Amino acid sequence: MAGKFEQNLARLGISLPATAAPAANYVPARRLGNQVYISGQVPSEAGKDKYTGKLGSDYSVEEGQAAARLCAVNILAQLKQALDGDLDRVVGVIRLGGFVNAEPDFKDHPKVINGASDLMVEVFGEAGRHARAAVGCYSLPRNVPVEVDAIFEVN
């Protein structure tokens, strides 16, 4: 029987994908004591970037939120792998870091990263509430519009 967080994912219609291999010289997850650090995840699906371009010219805030949500799905896939398949070991989400590839006049970075934040709360409830950064930048790898990293408390 699936754990409570897996049941929340199923209720949301989310099936976690296979994890992506690192694109450079880093590891996708690193555990330190009761914390797991997940490297930045981009909005890829089935091994391909689902979104490329900038917020403010190529994508609306709502499309950016969908891209951030996909980043969060990929974070959860990496987390599940790091926890040997048991998301119920999650005590809470500590922090998300969101990077938004945006035009210079774009000002809604926090709204975009809400796509990732909202999913964490939907999956983990109150334990999904977290500290966060939402940072605008001129470019991201492969011209993706959003990248999100995370820190979790686990047992």
Automatic annotation (TrEMBL):
Signal peptide: none
Domain named Endoribonuclease L-PSP/chorismate mutase-like: residues: 8-143
Keyword Transmembrane helix: no
Keyword tRNA processing in annotation: no
Pfam families with a match to the protein in the record: YjgF_endoribonc (PF14588)
Annotated keywords: Plasmid
Name of protein: Enamine deaminase RidA (YjgF/YER057c/UK114 family)
